[in-house]
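Second attempt. The first submission of Branched-chain amino acid transport system ATP-binding protein had a stray character pasted in from the spreadsheet, which I only caught after the job came back as garbage. Lesson logged: always re-copy from the clean sequence file. Corrected sequence (253 aa) follows.
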Amino acid sequence: MLEVRNLEVVYDDVMLVLRGVSLRVPPGSIVALLGANGAGKTTLLRALSGLLDVHDGEITKGGVTLEGEPIHRLRPAQIVRRGVSQVMEGRRILAELTVEENLKVGGHTAGTSHLDRVYGLFPLLRERRKSVSGYLSGGEQQMLAVGRALMAGPKYLLLDEPSLGLAPSLVGQVRDLIVEINRQGTTVLLVEQNATMALSIASHGYVMETGKIVMDKPARELLADEDIKEFYLGAVRSFREVKHYKRRKRWLS
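This time the job returned cleanly.
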């Protein structure tokens, strides 16, 4: 179990970004974390993967445990060795290196023992293993970013907006790949603004707003929730606006 308990995070000693966040990612599951830009989703992933220090962030309350053991004070490489890998938003591939060199960088803690699995999931990467990564398409670079994270053989994979900037036809491929990665035994925490895609494959979902969890339900219930539909498909920016919008519609009717 990967678990976050009452987590508070401050940036630059003054900016409180996470405000008592708690969530659970059970082994074998896909858990979706939804929210608008600025809600605190990426900060939460940084806390899970040990990358807060790089961005001048600090955990001031609460913690993160993996299989009951605290990991929130560990360095990123130590967290990877314990089985947690992150695919960061924006792919962050090493553009000047080849595909296979990028993958080997991802395997610095486990060698190349997972290379066959990655090439099995992404046959295109095998075909282009000698290609310079910077010349790949956006979708191919996303495959490479996921493959690089899988090279460490993680038990838990943290995905930050994997469908961002991709054509609709590629979003479906990303969805299917996440399902297959999970089927092969890797637990997934999926951060997404594409709520429909994320909730269609998740078992449970959390919704963040201004650094707090404001909704927590089984994914199928969130997918059917009218407030979620208003928030993600309507012209509103927060759940407070959803409620105000509904009150206004009743007043005008």
